[in-house]
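[step 3/7] inverse_fold.run input=structure_tokens len=210
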């Protein structure tokens, strides 16, 4: 165990020194490598999971990375009362714009535990077009406590709902270290530690964040 603690301290010091020398942690660019048609389809799938099919059909979405600054997130939408047109620089931007319309024009509410999705009929008209660009490149979300206290026990249905919620709120940098202990195991075994050392070190699922 002392051997493990010593090597962990070495890794921590290495990371700190590397950062102080300016060799790491440069600006991250969040330009998606996923094809535009895949992002568009994924964004519309979120809408289908939230609204009934006949209502979802009133939303037309598209992804166009060129409608705003390359380092920021932009979405725009308009509505003639029959169809709502939403365009975003990414799939997440489209879903963020969809949520903006629901929240600010339809008085809807989507939360972790429940939603109010009583959309007016006809849908509210939005003209001229609304164009929104994020103030910051990164919208970070989460903390280690929730990861171990709640997320570790979720099934895919609950995860999908929460991922949708993150997209609805424009999150593009969630804390996501699920299964990080598997990487640790591989690294530490290569460093010469034994499986017995690791079994004594790793805690149960509700404490892996620490």
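[step 3/7] decode complete -> sequence:
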């Amino acid at each position: 165990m002392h051997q493990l603690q010593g090597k962990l301290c070495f890794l921590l010091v290495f990371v700190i020194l590397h950062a102080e020398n300016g060799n790491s942690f440069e600006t991250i660019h969040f330009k998606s490598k996923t094809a535009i048609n895949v992002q568009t389809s994924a964004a519309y799938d979120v809408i289908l999971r939230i609204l009934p099919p006949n209502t979802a059909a009133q939303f037309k979405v598209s992804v166009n990375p060129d409608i705003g600054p390359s380092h920021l997130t932009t979405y725009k939408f308009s509505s003639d009362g029959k169809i709502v047109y939403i365009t975003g620089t990414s799939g997440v931007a489209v879903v963020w714009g969809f949520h903006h319309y629901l929240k600010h024009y339809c008085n809807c509410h989507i939360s972790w535990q429940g939603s109010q999705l009583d959309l007016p009929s006809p849908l509210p008209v939005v003209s001229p077009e609304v164009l929104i660009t994020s103030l910051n490149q990164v919208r970070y979300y989460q903390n280690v406590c929730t990861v171990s206290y709640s997320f570790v026990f979720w099934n895919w249905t609950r995860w999908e709902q929460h991922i949708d919620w993150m997209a609805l709120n424009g999150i593009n940098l969630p804390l996501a270290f699920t299964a990080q202990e598997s990487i640790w195991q591989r690294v530490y075994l290569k460093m010469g530690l034994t499986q017995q050392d690791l079994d004594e070190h790793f805690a149960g699922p509700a404490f892996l964040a620490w």
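[step 4/7] annotate
The first strand starts at residue 59 and ends at 63.
The chain has eight helices and eight strands.
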